[in-house]
């Protein structure tokens, strides 16, 4: 693809423009203004985030990508209220985030189900914690288990489930409290490629059916393009907003779109941003040349 072909493939077609316009006409649900994070401690401090600024609209699917160490997890932990910012503010429906809250659901990479509770009790947990009676919590958990196709496993324990099933339960557990935002930090990274593809399609299916905004961190550019309305690209050392990219692909998404010019152009654009040389002083050192081990007498290349 020439640069010109890439540029024109990045222009969304009219139906995608119209959908993105409808999305931007919805209320802003999350506004992040000048967010900084400085880790202090023994030795020198680390500036993880510097002046992060963006906003998401209700029912948007926003992915966040960037090189390792650019502060993606730090950012989502601040949005979850698990970490305090050093400066700036994140506002959910206009209210500053100062700690965890039930209007934010979370799904992380590690399987975070309680191993000593059954699948159904895991899903009920959030409701019971916020004061819903056990029978009502059980009724709602039953509905969610139907929705995620795991009713037959209601009385099973997490160790009896596959990785994909565990993450489906984790998603149901996060959504049962009807959060405004679902925060996902590499939720499918530990799954094999086939299960991961099924989980992506499955997540889009749920997202379509309920009123929730998704913020999804991933290392996988194909995953980001397949899922997102827009992709926030961060640069490292310290993490800064590099670009917000509108994904020029129609919905519903399908695996066949991976072959399209728009998909390939978006991936090329993301790769050029993420692998661009940085002028930062904290740039990674090249690996030193490695000597052969003393007992290696021939070469393999
Ligand atoms: N608790 C902490 N104390 C000190 N430094 C930290 C802490 N947590 C993260 N950092 C530093 O902040 C920077 C951003 O880390 P973070 O884990 O948010 O990046 P990331 O983009 O999620 O990385 P990865 O893609 O590898 O998961 C890194 O330089 C990291 O070493």
TrEMBL record:
> What domain of life does the native source organism fall in?
Bacteria
**Single GO molecular-function term?**
ATP hydrolysis activity
- Has keyword ATP-binding? yes
Q: Which SMART domains match?
A: AAA
What InterPro entries does its record include? AAA+_ATPase (IPR003593), ABC_transporter-like_ATP-bd (IPR003439), ABC_transporter-like_CS (IPR017871), ABC_transporter_ATP-bind (IPR050166), P-loop_NTPase (IPR027417)
In this protein, which residues make up the domain named ABC transporter? 30-261
Q: Which UniProt keywords apply?
A: ATP-binding, Nucleotide-binding, Transport
Key word Mitochondrion present? no
The record's comment on protein family reads: Belongs to the ABC transporter superfamily.
Enumerate the PANTHER family for this protein: ALIPHATIC SULFONATES IMPORT ATP-BINDING PROTEIN SSUB, TAURINE IMPORT ATP-BINDING PROTEIN-RELATED
Q: What is this protein called?
A: ABC transporter ATP-binding protein
The scientific name of the source species is Acidisoma silvae
- Organism phylogeny: Bacteria, Pseudomonadati, Pseudomonadota, Alphaproteobacteria, Acetobacterales
